[in-house]
Structures are given as C-alpha cells and as structure tokens.
C-alpha cells in the first residue's frame, strides 16, 4: 500500500524522532536523526542536506579535483533531500525508531543530482516504464567476518579498523577457520549471531531467501528476496547496514571488500535481473522454443532478451568502475578464482560474466540474467542502473550477441579467445569509462561520468601514493 503524507501522523503517532539516510557514490548510507515535528514539516517538500557527501570520499576527505556537484566555488551548498515515504521501516536494533531513505535533487532544477544512486537507477527504469515494462532483481552477497580480540582490561572488542592501527591484517582472526561451504555445523559456533542477522533482516523489511556459509574462513553468503528492482537496490544497500549494526553487538566485523585475503576466494555481489510487462509476465522468456536459434543456449530466450544481453556484453567493458569500484575490486577479478575476467556469457555457466538462467533448467517465469562481475563492494544502485542502461541500449539498437557462449570446458574466468579481457585495474577501467565517446557517456550522460570518474581518479591517486606492507617487507633490507 502506498504511503502518503496524510498517513504519517497516524503512522508515527507514538514516536518522537525519525532517522533519515541517503546513499553516496560508494554505497554508504549518510543520514541523521530528526525530530518528528521536523520530519512532518519536510516529508513532502524535502530539506537541505549538505552536498559535501558528493564532494568527499568514504573517509570524508575532499576529492583532489573538485567536482561539479559539490565544491568550494558553490560553497558546498545544500542539495534537497526528499524522503521516499514508501521506504518506511523501523530499526529493530534502535528501539524501533522510524526510518526512511531519501533521494537527492538539485535545488535549482529539482532534477535528480547526477551522482545520486537512487536517482540514477530511477532514471534508467523510466526508459522501460514508457513502454509499460518493469524490472525485477535479486542480490547475492558474500562477505568475510572477523573477530577482534578484546583488550585485557575491557569487556568489549574494538572495531577492526581500530584494532588494525596497532596490528597486522593477518593477525585479525576469522570468525571460523578453514573452507567449509554450506556447512550445517559451522553456524552453530556463532548461532546467536547467525540467527540474529536472519531475523533482524526480516524485521527490517530486508528479507533473506537463503543464508549459509560459503567456502572461505568465516565467510557467509546471503541471497536477498527477489523483488522489484528499485526496492531490491534499497534492500541490498540496507542489508549491509543490518549486518554491520548487528555484528557490532557480537564483537564481529563483517568485511564486504572484494578480496580481503590473498590466495583465498573473493567476495562476490552477484545481481539477478529480469524484465516484466505490466501484468508481471516475464519478457525474457520466448514461449515456444526457437527451432533455429543463433546459439543453442538462447533457444528459450526472447528476441528482446537477446538484444538486452547483447547490450550488456557490448557495454560491460565501458562501465567497469560501476561494477568494480575500488582498487581492491581487481584483486578478485583474476583467473582461476571463480570470478569472470572476460566479456562472456553462457546458459547456466558460472564461469561467465553473464550467466543466463532459462529453460530447460529453470521455470519460464524465472528466466533471468545473473551478472557475475560485481563484487560485494559495489554500489547496488549503480550496478543495477548499469545493467538496465546497457540492456536498454541493446534493445533500442536491436544489437546482436557479439560473441558465442562460453564453452562448458572453458577455464573458470573465461577465455580471451572468446571475448575481450575486462580491465585489470581501476585505472584501466576508469580511463575507458571516462574516454570521449564511451558507451558510459552515451547511456548516463557527461555529468554523471565526469563526477563519478573523478571520484575514481581520487581513489587511484591515493593508491599511487600509498606505501604498502608488501613494499616494506620486500624492499626494506634488499635495495
């Protein structure tokens, strides 16, 4: 049921405060607590929110190169944050305080701020809505979990970040040791935490379909409940909020880095996407099997589905900073670690960048694409916006699938004989993303690409200036 401003006094009758939060370019929630009186006064019109959240990085350092949205010249002015009333939920670990997500708008035009993740996804989805189409999505997240040792004089564990100021990363103990995916016994070791996550997600309207250990020390995987794509992006973002908040109470630090530990599998953030008509019918399913398909893998995939797939494959190399946004992302995207490294696809092929899930192995209504390139570090709004933007470009241009499906015997990661090698670093990815005439500029526009690309240039510069433990260990005595 749609929530309106008229519903709010009754909905918040017994409350005296409301928590509000928006999403920045790194997928981090940024927000504050306001009084109920304040919230009711701005619920429809929105309120001023400092634009600096789009002018600094994940550690609140202003970008080296000032960007258009927020800068000294415009005084880091306010932008307008408008609550999404239908995002309402209560935070169970904070005395059920009411919570709403906001989207950010330019105060002069009231158009979405180019970098606003929720706005970007909404803009891409509107292209489909003009034709009466919609999109559904699901998300899967893997993440490591670490226990931080308590200080002798304290009964509380510090955060992992605090612990690492005085200790090495390798000394940070995993929640459990060893490789034991789909284990029924390992969660028993920390069962209060394990069930707390599952139950809290349900209470916070962030329901999980599946929840299990994954292969890796202290690694869990969560499959979020499939749903409408904008709601899915919200729940994917809020899932991390739940996990980090609940974990704190148990002395655990969850880690959504793409590659936390050398020599071990990374953390994926796979996204499942399908298209539907106004009646909810799957638009990717063909109906009757094509007797003469270009590839056997797409015999049950509709013409629209084939064009959509072609658009993703053609544009994927140009949007890599959106699906692999950090320096660390590219440590996961290496050969032979169950992560795709090429432009590739295939029916039920887990080594490919795009896994087609369709009959005969799936029900017709479950026909969908699994986008396997993103890591758990990616911003879900940007990932889903990229999938929609590239797919729609393929549909509009009636693009043909540019490469054959990955062979079942192909090595994990894919073959460069079949498809182009994806970027090996954030620098390589961002140069392609920002270049003149890139597909990213075509589908998202210059304002977004210049802003987001500028934030990635900032990340690259920080990495270039960093002196790592590896360098010290290798060169301290030998050069």
Describe what this molecule looks like in 3D.
This protein is of the alpha+beta class and 479 residues long. Helix content is 30%, strand content 19%. Strands 6, 7, 8, 9, 10, 11, 12, 13 and 14 form a 9-stranded mixed β-sheet that branches. A 5-stranded mixed β-sheet has the order 2-1-5-4-3. Strand 4 (78-91) and strand 5 (97-105) form a beta hairpin. The chain is globular and about 65 Å long.
Helix/strand layout:
Layout: H1 8-11, E1 17-23, E2 29-35, H2 36-42, E3 47-50, E4 78-91, E5 97-105, H3 117-129, E6 134-147, H4 160-163, H5 191-203, E7 208-213, E8 219-224, E9 227-228, H6 229-249, E10 252-255, E11 271-276, H7 303-315, H8 320-323, H9 329-332, E12 345-347, E13 354-357, E14 368-371, H10 380-397, H11 426-434, H12 439-444, H13 446-465, H14 469-475
Parallel strand pairs: 1-5, 12-13
Antiparallel strand pairs: 1-2, 3-4, 4-5, 6-8, 6-9, 6-10, 6-11, 7-8, 11-14, 13-14
Going by helix content, strand content and strand pairing, the class is: alpha+beta
Task: Report strand %.
Answer: 15-25%
Low-pLDDT stretches are none
C-alpha termini separation: 68 Å
Pfam families: Gln-synt_C (PF00120)
Protein name: Glutamine synthetase
Keywords: ATP-binding, Ligase, Nucleotide-binding
GO molecular function: ATP binding; glutamine synthetase activity
